[in-house]
Amino acid sequence: MIYLNPAGLAPFHHDVQQEISRTLDTFSQLLYAEAGIEYYRATLQRCRRAIADCLRLNDEQRLAFMPNTTTACSLVLSRINWKPGNVLLTTTHENSTILNEIQKLGARGVRAIALNPDVPSGFLPALERTLDEQPVQAIVISHVSHFDGRILPITAIQELAQSHHMPLIVDGAQAVGHIPVSFQEFSPYAYFFPGHKWCTGPMGTGALIIGKDGHQETQPHWTGYELGTQNIGLIAGFAKACQLKDQTHSNNQILEEFREEWKVCLRPNPGIRTIEWDGAHAPGILSFACLDERTEQAMDTLSATHSLAWKTLTHPSYPSNRSIRVSWTTDTPGIDIRSTLALFSSLSNE
Fold this sequence. Notes:
The protein is of the alpha/beta class.
């Protein structure tokens, strides 16, 4: 199988598996004796510090461990004092699980407005107008679009949110481990991401970064968000994966080179349209729309015949067409990508 969907679920490194096993083996010999409790707490704190270092987060007490981003989003939204008539501002590029959490607020009289991030020059003014004209209580937005990898201007959005005294909640699922993310550059109300995507860590892990105005001062920031006993084996693997990923950011140029090769390869095919905007793009994602039924059938044949694993979706810009998202990391074999490109090239020449 040629795997081109790490934006959905990434295989994790052998060292990550070893870290999980080693941690659980050690803890199983101690359990909840005094030594076990000490080991449990020390492991959580070590992992909290390790992941915080990868994010350039000075205060690791602002990092809470989560089982996934949906849980993190649900917890953060539950802490906001919503009132009937409030508006939540979001975009048309949010993940369906996050949108489900947003839609649940409708039972409390909260209305959601979803803006289309079509071009940066139009998106930011539209966002500012909405903040000026509507009773917006919070903004929930992706750092990187899961649809096509466009990077939303989070720093500019945070400035707008701060000027309107507005909580900014950021879904970093397609960002952390993929593009450089530094909390020395911005500090939203909340920022969450999973371990099993670009961080290449185990499923059932993730982190929530709580902003300086999103916690109680009397306790460590994470205490109000980490609910119940944590799986320290998975968390140790998560921390190890983040450390390994942090060491490979310098190789993002390789991901960008592959992206350019994809664009060149797809351009001659009249049944395919690459989906982009005129802003920044994450280097490991490229999406394209199938413009006719013949192209859709050709994609099905390619996928089945050559065991290609990618993400099919309905893109907001092409609601009547099938779109495909391909993604890759520095661990994706170059031969897999280039052999897939050769298949697409032969398809274009038919």
